[in-house]
């Protein structure tokens, strides 16, 4: 859960990190330590799963469309 929270925070604060994610989402997720259900929730832009995995639905986060889905 901590890696997911850090990832979402960094996506919201670091433009270079977002650019790297847009260019190669799988690599950035792996480098961030996200795998399994955590990586799936990000890649699928599943807000319900992200809220459940973060464990606190009061924490705002940004879902990023990496171009594979609309």
UniProtKB/TrEMBL annotation:
Spell out the protein name for this chain.
Uncharacterized protein
């Amino acid at each position: 859960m901590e890696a997911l929270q850090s990832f979402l925070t960094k996506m919201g604060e670091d433009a270079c990190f977002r650019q790297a994610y847009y260019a190669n989402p799988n690599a950035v997720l792996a480098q961030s330590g996200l795998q399994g259900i955590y990586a799936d929730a990000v890649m699928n832009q599943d807000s319900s799963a992200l809220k459940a995995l973060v464990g606190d639905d009061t924490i705002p986060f940004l879902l990023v469309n990496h171009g594979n889905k609309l």
